[in-house]
Specification:
- The structure holds three protein chains of three kinds.
- Chain A is mainly α.
- Chain A has helices at residues 2-32, 66-78, 101-109, 141-147, 166-174, 182-188, 229-244, 248-278, and strands spanning 112-116, 123-127, 197-198, 206-207.
- Helix content of chain A is 43%, strand content 5%.
- In chain A, β1 and β2 form a beta hairpin.
- In chain A, α2 packs across α7 (229-244) and α5 (166-174) runs antiparallel to α7 (229-244).
- The longest helix of chain A has 31 residues, at 2-32.
- Chain B is α+β, with helices and mostly antiparallel strands.
- Chain B folds into two domains: 7-44, no CATH class; 52-186, Rieske Iron-sulfur Protein.
- Chain B is built from five helices and nine strands.
- A three-stranded antiparallel beta sheet of chain B has the order 1-9-8, with no helix packed on it. A three-stranded antiparallel beta sheet of chain B has the order 2-3-4, with no helix packed on it.
- The longest helix of chain B is centred in the first third of the chain and has 24 residues, at 21-44.
- The N and C termini of chain B lie far apart (71 Å).
- Chain C has two domains: 32-274, Cytochrome Bc1 Complex, Chain C, CATH 1.20.810.10; 304-418, no CATH class.
- Chain C is built from 16 helices and four strands.
- By secondary structure, chain C is an all-alpha fold.
- Chain C has helices spanning 14-22, 25-33, 49-68, 78-87, 92-119, 128-150, 155-168, 175-183, 190-219, 240-265, 295-303, 320-333, 338-341, 353-374, 382-407, 417-422; strands at residues 38-40, 237-239, 308-310, 315-318.
- Classes of the chains: A mainly alpha, B alpha+beta, C mainly alpha.
- Chains in contact: A-B, A-C, B-C.
Chain lengths: 285, 187, 453
Amino acid sequence: MSIRLGGIIAGLAITLVLVLWSLVPGVYNFVFGPPAEKPASYAFYEHGEGPAGGFSFDGPMGTWDVAQLQRGYQVYKEVCSACHSLKFVAFRNLQQLGYTEAEVDAEAASWTVPGIDQNTGEVNTRPGEPTDYFPMPFPNAIAAAAANNNAIPPDLSLMTKARHDGSNYVYSLLTGYGEPDPAKAAKVGFETPAGLYFNKHFPNVNIAMAPPLAIDGQVTYADGTNSTIPQMAEDVAAFLTWTAEPSLVERKQTGWFVLGFLLFATALAFLSYKQIWAGLKPKKS
Amino acid sequence: MASDTAVISETGSEEGVRRRDWIHIAALSTAGVGGASLLFPLISQMAPSADVLAASSTEVDIGAIAAGQSIKTTFRKQPLFVKRLTPEEIAAAKKDDGTSMRDPQTLAERTKEGHEDILITMGVCTHLGCVPLGAAEGENKGEFGGYFCPCHGSHYDVAGRIRKGPAPLNLMVPEYSFTSDTVVRVG
Amino acid sequence: MSFAWAKQYEPQSTFTKWLDEKLPLPRLVYNAVGAGYPVPRNLNYMWNFGVLAGFCLMLQIVTGVILAMHYAANAQVAFGTVEHIMRNVNWGWALRYAHANGASFFFIVIYLHIFRGLFYSSYKAPREMIWLLGVVIFLLMMATAFMGYVLPWGQMSFWGAQVITGLFSAIPVVGEPLQVWLLGGFAPDNAALNRFFSLHFLMPFVIAGVVILHIWALHIPGSSNPAGVEVKQESDTVPFHPYYTSKDGFGLGVFLIAFTAMVFFLPNALGHPDNYIEANPLSTPALIVPEWYFYPFYAILRAFTGDLTIPFTGIVLIPAKLLGVIGMFGSILVWFILPWLDKSPVRSGHYRPLFNKFFWFGLIPTMAALFYLGGAHAEEPYIMLSQIFTAYYFMHFLVILPIISQIEVPKPLPFSITEAVLGKDTPAEAPRTGTAATGDAGTLPDGSLQPAE
């Protein structure tokens, strides 16, 4: 009895404290206080959509479009890699994009990676080997910030997993540059700060990255595909999805196999269970 | 159902089980197959990972090695001995080519044609994996003037062949090729 | 202890006879989860989750030990070793996704297990000890899950470690030094990461130990059941094996289908994208929230926004930060006295009309709301809503349950489990008292139901 009495007293006390000291002032502020204001920039944000028709790897049956990944790699190499690293990806991984061993060797050798002189021990550079990882464009974070107006270009290896709905996010961000609606901007007094760029799909719409894909045909695709800005954005978004999760297709394919097996095993387990209980449960009268 | 009475009968259920035994056997075997196939990822995860397996290669500059000298470098995280044999050592090794050995090999089989003064071997004793002595100046070269493993007393000759002691095989010669007269690419 | 009609283990071969004399392990298993354990015959699917929770613990230990073979608890490389597991280790991605989603599914199973206990009053005498040990397991699980989430050393890991150890800084006087001591520094770094890894490895085995006590305590009175009346006769029970082993086998199959669907098709759906960004002590993510399974408690933590002051004097008795911490820990600690708060002699919610209403229309919506609110931004109206639901949460356990257990008129209980399963026209072995037909609600036919006050 005493525990119950104590419980009731404690419960009433907690509720009283919560209601009188937290809820009541909160409600008072909400009703009579100044309305909560969001920065004007939020008015311009638009949630990004992926490319029309989606990506080839979308959905439970999705697979890589190898030609697209190769085009995306070309966009990364010719555009993004100037500022963005890809530090968790090694050149040897490119074999998964359909390149032969010799092509991977040649591709790796086309990159310059940091090395050490075998005779003097001095730091130097050398052509990449398949076992090397993609090189860092800047020696350290301070150098990266100094070269980019104080904004450090993030590593792209995991970008599509590090953002909500990442593949579509990357695509929409690359195609989201433009100018804010001037009438609306004038009305709320919105202006993109100097050194930043307006991008309606970036969370606070002011992004430090200059439009990386500026004109159609910026990259000349080896396979002859017409390199419009949306095409390049889609290709590089697909490539970055692969870098973030090289096992994506293998995972989905394994999943179907495992699920099929489990459905079969569970059906058998159900029959076995029913069979065992059948003798026990008499008919309801 | 066997009975429509409300009385529970243990034996009744057991008869049912016997009649449809196959379903339990099938269910249990399927579960067994599932459990056993789970072992595959659990075991294979301990095997070398993709980054370890990715064949790496090492380039060695042999131009600076004088006759009779060796250098130690690393190949796949293991020591690699690169030795330039003197004419006397080559002669001694060739003289022994025909003698009975535990792991018979000729010097020619252990070097590249035209470069038979360059002997490249792993610095890993084939007995239990210690690093043999003899690559550096002043180290014990063993009774046959090549390498000597101090762990369990294996003696290798100038061509890295096992001549005495417990080691079963000659020092391993990795795959390598000459990219130029003075540069060797191992791996 | 077991019922008099429990089957006895009889070793057949010479070897098992020898083993039974020297180390009666097969006998122990036989009596614990074999044919030697009589279980009420009327258990529904809600009773599957105990076995499933045990499976989850084993799954987490197996995958966790394997991940530890490839992981390095050093702030410089921890994030990279997790990526190494995902990219290079054979089947590493599957093992890591299984471990990460395994934690979520462990909590799903545990929440359903607790839900079962709350609705069917599994915490009541004579099963208080099982319940108390269960709450201990839950607390240990929360600590283990939190420390495990720090290990990948992503942004959420880092800021989670910062915020959760920050809770301890709310304690008066010793709080700030306590936080520094917990972290081994002034911010999460190597020292914190290493000790969290060490403890994260240790704790599952502590949990396994408490689970053994939990099961031991269960075998003293035997399992509870949906009717809430105690086992009286042999026809009330069936042997655990093969009846419940087969049912649990089927339940495990269903569980694994749901689990593998998440692991293979939506492996990151229950996580936060921010944790794929390497920890950065200089930048806080826009929305810091814990993993979903902590949401209700996080909502309670954030509900206390005002200091407890003496009105018009400005004297602060308890700061809001401390109130929130007290509220959050109190919301779980209140479960420790639950067996003594709810003294209704009737166990099953099916036979308690008033309890049933408060449970389905009070507690369940409250928990659903708190789950939602814990993951929402800390802004109105979410704060006001979490305050209202937090107040109901405490009222439900501390005020409503004690009062309704006093005033409620329960529905008539079945005489026995056999009757509950087979209907009333079963030839009963003893005369029944209260039935629905006679309408003498409130008569308690079952002597074992009387509270042991």
